[in-house]
Amino acid sequence: MLSRSWLKWSTSWVLSLGIAVGVGAGTAGAVTTSASQPIGGTGVSRPTANGVFREIKWDDLVPKDWDPLKEFKNINFSLMNDSDPRANEMLKRMRETWDNAPTNNEMDGASVRIPGYLVPLEETKAGLKEFLLVPYFGACIHSPPPPANQIIYVKAEKPPKGFQSMDTVWVSGTLKTLRSDSYMGASGYRMDAVVVEPYVEPK
Questions:
Q1: Spatial distance between the Cα atoms of 109 and 149, rounded to a whole number of angstroms
Q2: How many C-beta atoms surround the C-beta of residue 80 within 10 A?
Q3: With the C-alpha atoms ordered 9, 153, 188, 21, is the resulting torsion angle positive or negative?
Q4: Residue 78, C-beta contacts closer than 8 angstroms, at least 6 positions apart
Q5: Rg from Cα positions in the chain
Q6: Strands (E), 20-178
Q7: Are strands 168-176 and 180-182 parallel, antiparallel or unpaired?
Q8: Lower Cβ count inside 10 Å, N or C end of the chain?
Q9: CB–CB of 141/162 below 8 Å?
C-alpha cells in the first residue's frame, strides 16, 4: 500500500518539476536543492570552446516540449486517502510517466560536465565503478526516483575512491540517450565518465 506521505511528496514533486521545466530561474547550491532547484541551477547552459567539456544544467536534459503535468493537471490528490483506489492508480501512472520520460536527443554523444548527487550502484576495492547521478539531495535514497530524464547512469573509466552516497560531484564524459534500469531507478541517460571530482560551486 502506498503511503499518504508518498502521495503528498509525489504531488509536490510534480508541481515543483513543472515550475522547474516551465520557468527555469535562480541557482541552487550544494545544500539547498530540490526538484525545482537542482544542483548547478536551472536555465540554459553556456557553450564552451572546442575540445572542452560543455558544462550543462539539468534543464538541458529535458525536451523543451515535454510537459510533466499534462496527465495530472485535473487531479486533486488532497481529496484522496490511502484507501482510495484512485490514489494508487494515479501514483502508478505517475511512476510509469516518470520512468518513461523522454530524453533530449541533442544531448546524445555530447561531451559534457554536470554536477549532481551520487547514488552508488557498484563499488569494488578499485573504487566506485557504477553510480547514478541525480539533481537534488535525497533522490532515489530518501525519496522516490525523479523522472528518467533527470537520472544519469554513470560508468567510470577510472573508478573514483572516497565518495559516499549523496556526495556532490562534477562528472565529465560522453553522454548518451540510453535507457538503463537499476534497483535505484530508471535512467534515461548513460555517461562514460572520464573525470569524477568533488563539487565546487562556480564563483
A1: 15
A2: 19
A3: positive
A4: 11
A5: 17
A6: 54-55, 111-124, 127-134, 152-156, 168-176
A7: unpaired
A8: C
A9: no
pTM: 0.75
pLDDT, mean over the chain: 79
Backbone angles phi, psi at 117, to 5 degrees: -100, 140
> CA nearest 104: which of 30, 168, 44?
44
3-class DSSP state for residue 76? coil
Which SS3 state, helix, strand or coil, does residue 8 take?
helix
Distance CA 119, CA 161 (A): 14
DSSP single-letter state for residue 183: T
Q: Are the C-beta atoms of residues 163 and 196 closer than 8 Å to each other?
A: yes
Closest CA relative to residue 138, chosen from 32, 43, 66: 32
Identity of the highest mean pLDDT range in 35-49, 55-69, 170-184: 170-184
DSSP-derived 3-state class of residue 24: coil
Provide the angle, in degrees to the nearest 10, between the axes of the packed helices 4-22 and 85-99: 40
Q: How far apart are CA 83 and CA 74, in angstroms?
A: 20
Task: Quick: pLDDT tens for 145-191.
Answer: 899 999 999 999 999 999 999 999 999 999 999 999 999 999 999 99
| 51 Cβ neighbours under 8 A, 6+ residues apart | none
Helix, strand, coil shares, percent, the chain, to 5: 25, 30, 50
